[in-house]
Amino acid sequence: MKLPSKVKIVDVGPRDGLQNEKGQVPAEIKIGLVHRLQDAGLKEIEVTSFVSPKWVPQMADNAEVMAGIQRRPDVRYSVLVPNMKGFEAAVASRPDEIVVFGAASEAFSQKNINCSIAESIERFAPVAEAALAKGIAVRGAISTAVGCPYEGDVAPERVELVARLMKQIGVQHVGVADTIGVGTPKKVQAAMEAALKHYDIDHVSGHFHDTYGQALGNTLACLEMGVYHYDTSSAGLGGCPYAKGATGNVATEDVVYMLHGMGIETGIDLDKLIDAGKYISDFLQRKPNSRASTAILNKRAG
Amino acid sequence: MKLPSKVKIVDVGPRDGLQNEKGQVPAEIKIGLVHRLQDAGLKEIEVTSFVSPKWVPQMADNAEVMAGIQRRPDVRYSVLVPNMKGFEAAVASRPDEIVVFGAASEAFSQKNINCSIAESIERFAPVAEAALAKGIAVRGAISTAVGCPYEGDVAPERVELVARLMKQIGVQHVGVADTIGVGTPKKVQAAMEAALKHYDIDHVSGHFHDTYGQALGNTLACLEMGVYHYDTSSAGLGGCPYAKGATGNVATEDVVYMLHGMGIETGIDLDKLIDAGKYISDFLQRKPNSRASTAILNKRAG
């Protein structure tokens, strides 16, 4: 196995995770989660989104959350923006990075954001340009990169197309996202290979959901390709809107447990990470959706 | 990736799984589970154990269960035996294979079966001899092959020792078992390498627990070594006696989902397998402990 010696984790729990939770989480709790994640050693946190509260009421407190974080110079705070209006609102909150997105499935693009893939990229072109002009980094998320709830299997060529379009508008880094968690190691590698036709190994991420329990296998498969950026979600926050009651984003704890067990550095303190996940799970009145966390919390309880 | 094109799954749910469940499961339900597993295409099922009911009351109906199965000629029915007395009781029920066991951790051997590793192997020597004389296959399980609840990390040399001892007494096939689920891909590969010093690739299995969510990554790591036998448990039956409320054996459904997604044949019908897991989970009045099953059952429910 050729493996990276270090991995960079982006915790997307506060945004991608909490966005899919039913209950409204107060800004102070979100801020508390971000603080605990940075205390645990996370160096990049996807904090919130600047999508219209009509569509995503969970993130209506975006500006308040961003303003409330005691920032650290070595941590990158990113926010998701859907369009120019969202970007303008986001700028005031001084993100280090914005996240734009495009689906690899045409049907998903239509159902999710009511436009074609090509139109969605066109919409993001001025956003990326404006961000870069202001010195804000631009990351792109390629959703439904392996499978789509409407179309089924998604061909790697579709991922390549979106990666090419994102490259053209100046997106600096792309994440290959298995939005519905149906991917398995070889399929995920094929999707990642497609992205690597337009981005080098330093500028691609794996973003896996554990809906079918496949996320760690998929992560290992990408580690073996040398991929060293992964998006994960503290306590496995976020369900799957396409399968009620199912798991969404892979838990940061499970990924970090695997990486440390393999001798791969993350800079993350697993015990503090588990505390962060416990904090938000306690607020949500449920157990962390992470097997490593469950096992370690049980062990602590003795 | 060099990967096997076919994988053989041993479903250990009726024995290793149900043995760790709190409630007593009636023989007819166990038989119903075995029938559903073979209908789903499983070709080897670990049915029960012939351990004293004083120690494992859950398996006191061993003879009744074995007698009640409508056997198929192409399915192998195995039972676990702890000693000569257990073997003699098992013989009457005509198993195709017996399973003997030894820990790679001295402390675990002492606490679990109250004797040293060497003593446990000595105890199994006449059992293996008698089984082979009767034409019954003999499989060995090397428990705590990666980590031990009492000793912590277990060195691969310990696994090699147990594999050598098992080879000496005629055990034909060994399983490398991560009994407490603490293993990660490189550690599991090292343990498997150690077993492969005494057994060829056709005679080793991976037996992984998902306590820390690592089982599929570990399975993938072993697939990449060419290992093509895995023990798994329908519906993830069986908790972890060393971490209350934690996951035990990896769910057959999750492993099969991954294998099929990778184009690896198992001969198993995933939908029927999910039905089998649902059957026993319904009896236990809980949801299957399998993410693939959860996602697919949710999808069926629409």
TrEMBL record, chains A, B:
Keywords: Lyase, Metal-binding. Gene3D superfamilies: Aldolase class I. The keyword Oxidoreductase does not apply. GO terms for biological process: ketone body biosynthetic process; L-leucine catabolic process. SUPFAM superfamilies: Aldolase (SSF51569). InterPro entries: Aldolase_TIM, HMGL, PYR_CT. It holds the Pfam family HMGL-like. It comes from the Bacteria. Residues 7-274 form the Pyruvate carboxyltransferase domain. One of its GO terms (molecular function) is hydroxymethylglutaryl-CoA lyase activity. Belongs to the HMG-CoA lyase family. This is Hydroxymethylglutaryl-CoA lyase. It comes from Ramlibacter humi.
